[in-house]
Amino acid sequence: MVINKPAGMAVHGGSGLAWGVIDVVRKMRPGMSVDLVHRLDRETSGCLLLALTGDALRDLNSQIKENQVEKRYLCLLDGKLKQDRVEVDEPIGQFERSGQKFMRVDTEGKPAHTTFRLLQHYADFSYTEAQLHTGRTHQIRVHAAHLGLPLAGDDRYSPRARQKFWKKMALKRMFLHAHRVNFYTADGEQQIVTSPLPVELSGLLEKLER
What we know:
Layout: E1 2-5, H1 21-28, E2 35-36, E3 45-51, H2 54-65, E4 70-77, E5 85-89, E6 92-97, E7 100-105, E8 113-122, E9 125-132, H3 139-146, H4 160-168, E10 176-184, E11 190-194, H5 199-209
Parallel strand pairs: 3-10
Antiparallel strand pairs: 1-3, 2-3, 4-9, 4-10, 5-8, 6-7, 8-9, 10-11
């Protein structure tokens, strides 16, 4: 199953949250095995892949390990991407600051690779498709910030002055949307599922274009 997760909803309960997407789906399908194949940040919207049987979960996990599951995201970078395609192949590790866990590019971290493809410039901002080749926590957000182009509305990896700017632009969430996922069924048939850009994000692009 692929669902179109709304921004603001966690994929599972915990850390003070009583429930998340997976808990809701399990309630809706009692007696059925329902498991997350991958995760999305709470503020990220879009395609979330779930497995409805143990065999499907094992098969999809195997596809992820073999890099056969393709995940693409739409994002707005706060600044100009200098090339039409930029590869960021930088390891990511975890650190703590003020009691909170963050991720950053770290030579001692785990391998991480993201491809950024420019779709359109809006003034000094870059509307971009990001393709994940690995699945590290906050990978797109960290690699975008590493380029000096943090995601619009990112309240963890962008400067506070920029966070205030985007709030003035009425952006109430991070501009990151999982718009496409490719995977294979048990019989080897490729599935491509897409999700359109949410209205609040497309509306911001229209505002920037004007």
